[in-house]
């Protein structure tokens, strides 16, 4: 009796939808293959090793290893020791960001990065769980006030607010934003501006990956939009009929804004303008009575944190890594050099 009653309640429908979405996402994550070799966190590791053994007399002095341009500035000192050999990681000496190219690897990266983000809670540390708790807690607070906020905004709505909302709504509309990013990418190609090229490709990936997660949540929860609902607590369960939670416009706007703000952070105007436009896009959805406040907040958080993760994957720290393994035997003392691609 209790089970049947629970399934008929709105909460039961929501939880059922979330479980379906979770199953869908995990099947999707494990089904795709991590073929992209440019993902630092998800790609498989391939090593080659070469014996760098030298006599004890030679390695008592600093040994300069030159494994191509990347290692030209690295100095490794080796000494004979009776202690257990340890592993030393020699990072790339260059600070240059790896370029992104529009090729098959780029599209494969989207799948492997999606898998990494989906499974990232398995690798979260305490601070990550704190951030997630704050986001969910704030979303819950907005959820409790959704009706009051919606009533207030609709009471204050006017032709002026409608005109303002009409200006900023397109910044979260995929048809407009994707076209703008394509134009930005072509600008980078034509004028050989690798930064613009890279930014456009990162923004497109963030836009796509954020869209996948937004779609999954919308489908699973089936929250009714404020223009069609009697109150903010109407959840219809899994469906795609004009669903509300979270706001796709806001998640897309913040996904792109976060990339622009991060890639052009040295320009004092770009971050505030980018985040300002994204915020106004979210507010336009409230004005147009298309979303609840909790929809908009979670959408913005989703776009921001997914983009931050993608930026981290493609950050300066990414690239080839070199590892030195000290090796000691009765006849010789030396080093084994390994490089991961």
Describe this structure in words.
The chain is α+β, with helices and mostly antiparallel strands and 341 residues long. 56% of the residues lie in helices and 8% in strands. The strands form 2 sheets. Strands 1-6-5-4 form a 4-stranded antiparallel β-sheet, with no helix packed on it. The chain has a two-stranded antiparallel sheet with strand order 2-3. Helix 2 crosses helix 4 (104-119), helix 8 packs antiparallel against helix 9 (248-263) and helix 8 (194-221) crosses helix 11 (293-313). The termini are far apart.
Order of adjacent strands in the largest pleated sheet: 1-6-5-4
Q: Could you state the order of secondary-structure elements as H and E?
A: HHEHEEEHHHHHHHHEE
Dominant shape:
globular
Radius of gyration: 25 Å
Taking the sheet with the most strands, its summary is: 4 strands, antiparallel
Q: Segments where pLDDT lies below 50 for 5+ residues?
A: 1-8, 14-97, 317-323
- The chain-level structural class is alpha+beta
The proportion of residues in beta strands is 5-15%
Number of discrete domains:
2
Instruction: Please count the helical segments.
Output: 11
Cα end-to-end separation:
58 Å
Report mean pLDDT, rounded to a whole number.
74
Looking at how many chains there are and whether they match, the oligomeric state comes to single chain
């Amino acid at each position: 009796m209790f089970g049947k009653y629970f399934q008929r309640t709105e909460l039961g429908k929501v939880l059922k939808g979330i479980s379906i979405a979770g199953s869908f996402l995990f099947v999707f994550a494990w089904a795709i293959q991590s073929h992209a070799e440019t993902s630092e966190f998800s790609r498989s590791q391939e090593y080659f090793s070469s014996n760098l053994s030298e006599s004890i007399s030679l390695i008592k002095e600093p040994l300069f290893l030159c494994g191509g341009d990347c290692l030209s500035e690295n100095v490794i000192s080796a000494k004979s020791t009776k202690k257990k050999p340890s592993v030393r990681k020699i990072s790339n000496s260059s600070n240059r960001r790896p370029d992104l190219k529009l090729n098959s690897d780029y599209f494969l990266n989207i799948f492997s990065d999606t898998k990494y983000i989906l499974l990232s809670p398995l690798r979260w540390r305490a601070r990550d769980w704190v951030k997630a708790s704050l986001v969910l807690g704030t979303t819950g607070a907005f959820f409790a006030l959704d009706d009051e906020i919606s009533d207030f905004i609709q009471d204050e709505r006017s032709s002026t607010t409608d005109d303002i909302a009409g200006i900023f709504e397109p910044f979260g509309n995929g048809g407009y934003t994707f076209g703008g990013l394509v134009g930005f990418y072509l600008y980078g190609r034509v004028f050989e501006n690798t930064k613009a090229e890279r930014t456009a490709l990162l923004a497109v990936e963030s836009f796509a990956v954020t869209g996948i997660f937004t779609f999954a949540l919308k489908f699973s929860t089936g929250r009714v939009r404020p223009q069609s609902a009697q109150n903010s607590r109407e959840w219809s369960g899994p469906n795609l009929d004009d669903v509300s939670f979270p706001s796709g416009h806001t998640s897309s706007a913040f996904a792109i804004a976060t990339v622009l703000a991060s890639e052009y952070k040295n320009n004092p105007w770009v971050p505030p303008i980018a985040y300002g436009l994204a915020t106004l896009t979210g507010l336009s959805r409230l004005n147009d009575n298309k979303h609840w406040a909790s929809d908009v907040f979670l959408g913005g958080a989703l776009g921001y944190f997914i983009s931050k993760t993608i930026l981290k994957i493609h950050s300066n720290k990414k690239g080839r890594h070199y590892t030195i393994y000290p090796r000691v035997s009765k006849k010789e003392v030396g080093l084994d050099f390994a490089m991961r691609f």
